[in-house]
Write a structure and sequence with these properties.
The structure is a single chain. By secondary structure, the protein is of the alpha+beta class. It has 2 domains: 275 residues, Jelly Rolls (Sandwich); 64 residues. The protein contains 5 helices and 18 strands. The strands form 3 sheets. Strands 2, 3, 5, 12, 13, 14, 15, 16 and 18 form a 9-stranded mixed sheet that branches. The chain has a 7-stranded antiparallel sheet with strand order 1-4-17-6-7-8-11, with no helix packed on it. The longest helix is centred in the last third of the chain and has 89 residues. The radius of gyration is 39 Å and the shape is elongated.
Length: 451
């Protein structure tokens, strides 16, 4: 038995050596340090919290208003309907001097050419969101506004192509004037796009849904940071299976915010032209002690992607497990995933069944309502026909009596044989001819009014 134990020991040593030489995709090197997400100022999917009073989803630490609706995977600020305004505002005050903001949005609609109005990111002094004309928020705000403008305003002072992204700092005394319509006002009292150097860019972040390559994974990723009086923004488009290169939108220097702390929020608005404006997620990270915000963001995003890959690859065998043919962990992970998937499928089936039953009930109610309306219309039509026929019968009776009376008069004239009788008869004939013409026109008019 000694030789057997020696053989097993040697085999284990070889197995250990082979395991060390095999690639370890499941244990990637740790990324460089980065600043973590401040959860109280952020939200991400899935949004699972449900308000026990209203039954609708709600975002922890955030307030929704106007037309904004929270779904499991995104927050829809405005739907593709005219005259909507929606917003989401963080209830927690942010008091650090710098920040790194990352947001994914989806602006989409059915029209490839006509759309509007857009959305805005806010970092303002006041928590209260008052509905107004500036992408769903009040004018003369105090703080920073970053606007994603999809509607082509009449602008004679700043020539740029839409969609247009730009930033404005307002001290609470200036009006937001996106075009040159209010020329009578003092220019110093107006906040105009492009008023600050390098404060905007043209970028087609919108997707029209008639394209064949559009999916729910078409997002626009936005990265904004404020560091040492510099605001820099870059944008990137994502799609199924990949992402485009970052596009540097603007860099504003020597920025002085009119407050030392504020509240984050996002708002959107539609006018005569419409779009869906969805926020997929919104994250805030501090930049305290960070020298390079871009590198910090890249390290954080790398860690996020690696965490997602590890979650997916949990169902794969690790090298050591493959050598030992130990499938227990993978089988447990797969069994757990299958159970979760079975629960989700069962829930989806019940939800579809419930919705189909609701649709069937709605169709039945609509059909019953249509049948009732048809019966009412039929009754009204019959009443109109009856009243018209009764009226016609009465008219015919009166005409018949008149004709009978005329005949008697004619017979009397014939018997009398007076010289003026024939002219009188001629006049009577003309009178009844005119009456007949009038009666025929009356019948035509009555028929034209019948349904």
């Amino acid at each position: 038995m000694r030789w057997l134990s020696q053989w097993l020991s040697a085999g284990l040593l070889v197995q250990s050596a082979l395991a060390d030489e095999l690639p370890t995709d499941h244990a990637p090197p740790s990324p460089a340090k980065y600043m973590p997400v401040l959860e109280k100022h952020s939200f991400r999917s899935p949004i699972n919290t449900v308000n026990e009073f209203t039954g609708s989803r709600q975002v922890d630490g955030w307030d929704l208003g106007g037309s904004a609706v929270s779904h499991r995977s995104f927050v829809r600020l405005t739907a593709e309907r005219q005259g909507q305004k929606g917003w989401i505002v963080n209830r927690n005050q942010y008091s650090e001097p710098d920040f790194s903001l990352e947001m994914e949005l989806r602006a989409s609609g059915g029209s490839p050419y006509l759309y509007g109005d857009g959305l805005a990111i806010w970092f303002v002094e006041a928590y209260e969101h008052l509905e107004g004309p500036v992408f769903g928020r009040e004018d003369m705000w105090k703080g920073l506004g970053i606007f994603f403008d999809t509607f082509q305003n009449i602008d004679h002072q700043h020539h740029h192509r839409h969609p247009y992204i730009y930033a404005m700092v307002n001290d609470g005394t200036m009006h937001y004037v996106p075009d040159a319509e209010k020329k009578e006002q003092d220019a110093s009292m107006q906040a105009l796009p492009g008023a600050a150097e390098n404060s905007g860019c043209s970028f087609d972040f919108r997707y029209h849904e008639t394209r064949h390559d559009v999916s729910v994974l078409n997002h626009t990723r936005v990265h904004v940071y404020l560091k040492a009086g510099v605001i820099k923004m870059r944008v990137q488009q994502t799609f199924l299976g990949g992402e485009s290169e970052w596009f540097d939108c603007f860099t504003m220097k020597e920025v002085k915010l009119p407050m030392t702390s504020g509240y984050f929020g996002v708002s959107s608005a539609t006018g005569d032209l419409v779009d869906n404006h969805d926020i997929i997620h919104f994250t805030i990270r501090s930049l305290e002690g960070v020298d390079d915000p871009i590198a910090d963001y890249d390290h954080w995003m790398t860690a996020e992607k690696q965490a997602e890959m590890l979650r997916i690859e949990e169902h794969d065998l690790r090298p050591a497990e493959a050598l030992q043919r130990d499938y227990q962990r993978v089988l447990r992970a797969q069994a757990k995933a299958i159970k979760s998937l079975t629960v989700d499928v069962d829930k989806l089936a019940q939800q579809l069944e419930f919705q189909i039953a609701s649709m069937d009930t709605s169709i039945s109610v609509a059909r019953k309502s249509v049948d009732e309306k048809s019966e009412q219309i039929k009754e009204v039509s019959e009443k109109i026909d009856s009243s018209v026929n009764d009226g016609l019968s009465e008219k015919l009776k009166e005409a018949n009596d008149a004709v009978h009376s005329v005949r008697q008069e004619i017979e009397q004239v014939k018997k009398d044989g007076s010289g003026w009788g024939w002219p009188f008869i001629f006049l009577l004939i003309m009178f009844f001819a005119l009456a007949g013409v009038g009666y025929n026109r009356y019948r035509k008019i009555m028929k034209s009014h019948l349904p």
